Amino acid sequence: MSDESQRIKQVILMRHDLKMRRGKQIAQGAHASMSFICRRLQERHSVSLDDFSDVERAWLTGAFAKICCRVNSEEELMKIHDKAKDAGLEVHLITDSGKTEFHGVPTRTCLAIGPDIAEKIDVLTGHLELL
Fold first, then answer.
1. Angstrom distance (rounded) from CA 90 to CA 115
2. Which candidate, 9, 50, 113, 127, has a CA 20 to 30 Å from the CA of 56?
3. Which residues contact 78 (CB under 8 A, 6 or more apart)?
4. What are residue 20's phi and psi, to 5 degrees?
């Protein structure tokens, strides 16, 4: 594995205030992580490695590193979402339909940032606690 691929990651931010069941957290985080590929597939109807940047390809074909961190509110989640978007980072916000938890109310549960160079993401998420 090259040094470059070790410095590439995706960070998933999970709302801790929702007190989701562990399985629900895992499912929501999986949705967030997969959105990176699925959104491109939906837009283009097929995906190849050529559709991704060098950094994204290195992540997909390398360690595929993911870090899960906690945020304590929807406000904190959205503040980091907006900053990541403004920084030009890949962002995928997940809103749960509310059918199994949250009493039928659609609820923002988590956010994936990246994949990208770790240092770019760490500026926004390096202060957060691991999940």
1. 7
2. 127
3. 108
4. -65, 150
In angstroms, the CA 105 to CA 98 distance is 5
Report the SS3 class of residue 112: strand
Q: Hey, which residues does 15 pair with through a beta bridge?
A: 71
C-alpha distances out from residue 120 to 92, 103, 114, Å: 16, 37, 9
Q: How many residues does the chain have?
A: 131
Encoded tokens for 4: 């470059």
The answer to whether the beta carbons of residues 76 and 127 sit under 8 Å apart is no
